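worker-03 picked up job from queue 'complexes'. Input manifest follows; two sequence lines, order preserved.
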Amino acid sequence: MKSKLFAVFVTLMMFMISGTFGVYAEDEDITENFVTDVSSENYEEDLNSENNVDDLPEESTINVNNNVLTIDCHDNKSVLSGMDWKIFKVAERNSDNAYINTDEFENCNISLNNLSTSQIVVAAETLEAYAEINNIQPLGSGTTDAEGIIKFSGLSYGMYLLSGSDVTINGKYYLPAPSLVTLTQNDGSGIPNWSYNVTAMPKLTVLGANNRVFHYSGIVKKIWENDDEKTRPKSIDVTLAKDGEKFKTVTLSEENNWTYTFEKLSSKYKWTVIEEGKLDGYSVTYSENNINVNPENPKEHDIEYIIVNRGNLAPKAPTPQVEVKPAVHSKQLPQTGQLWWPVPAMSALGLIVFAAGWKFNSHKRKKYEK
Amino acid sequence: MKSKLGVTLMILGAMLVIAALSLAVFNIHADREAEKKSMSVLVKLEEEITQRSETNNTNIELNVSHENLNETDTLDAIMVKNKNYIGIIDIPAINIKLPVLSEWNYDNLKIAPCRYSGTIDSSMILAAHNYSGHFGKLKNLILDDEVYFIDVNGKVYEFYVDYIEIIDGNSADKMLAGDWDLSMFTCTFDGTERVTIRCKKNTQ
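worker-03 finished. Artifact:
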């Protein structure tokens, strides 16, 4: 059937995230140049990438189980075995050839259509961070074998996020960049009609041991000052921004004690917190403090984001800090009694002594009179 | 004819009686002065708590120590007449309502009950003189009597009397022992022991 012989081909759009994934068709050879930042001990390298596309079958059938997405992790000197990878399906393609975020990522404020190269980089990083923060379960996961290879099979068409974890090999710290991969066809039939085999080699960032990427907790705390608790807003929306872009919004209120903790924030990005809307009668200030600092590597820490809303009521009176030194207790409890016991004792004794003197005098007088 | 010894004994006896009366007058005076001082502070403290709870003013934050835990903590306080007060103790059964000072010393004890140990959230112990206007009537409390503590933010904590004991004046360890939400003590009449009221938080 001629209709079946459409120029059907799978567009393996290994979206090049600044060369994150290099792919080439059988007769193509797209090899990104090795990029070295000689100004520091950090350097990035784009690895040779290849994409092998099987011959098209004559029939428009496909057994997705035969499709394999292979990730090959190595650099010129080392095979990166033991690197964990997760794969997430982030979007489906509809009949209008537009990408629609899957349910898990529908609340991630990012559109996956008509992205420029630089936007793809941002999109991949954003989706990876979103998946981490929201504990989204991956479609599949695994670890590269002794050859630095991991394979994912049985993938349906759509857009996928590949997210790898860091490994340290031969004294080098390797961090793979997140990548977006689309597996699709362009015959317009909507029917998968050929299989794919993709081999991709991720872009790796190699860092010195002290510069390893880590995840931290971002603890947001809202403080109200100089206002009336009865008239202050019942809740406030606070947005977490990743590299300046809105990322996630949470609501702070009395119920959560005006605090929220964003978990698993990657140190690869700049995370900031800002409250939504403007509150009449309040000024707002933001500050950040590093807390829970790792003593062995001070670069690793959590961050406390403090948002202070200051009302226009009279400021509080100066509040001198009073330090109470730890009390040292002796065995003796404080003497908390008034000295009452001598009163009856002295009174009684006085009366007795007085009476004795009186008696003695009387006795003496009588004796004298006799 | 009067005996010299008789006269001496009579004078000595009279002096003893006068001394006893003087001590009684002194105690009564100190009792009334203490009551007057604590009432004066109480009025200002109540005004301040009301005003601050309306304007949401921040209180003084004190660093305090948990003597029995060897840890430090903070608690809010309001300064009145250069003294830091952490709240008000109210015991309707013996008709007393008194400010509570943040730390104890003998000058403070002349004004009001003092925090001896802990905080309101962690086994607080209060000490006070046995002035009739302070903890002098503590011995009249019975089990299940209600006790209230109002902190400087206006928050009311409810307790009930769960145990009454007499502790030797040299047994601070015994005073600090036990799992009680609030304790109060004062001297017995002869000053050698402490009447101690142990309270539990009323969770109903």
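worker-03 released lock.
The radius of gyration of chain B is 20 Å.
Chain B touches chain A through 72 residues (CB under 8 Å).
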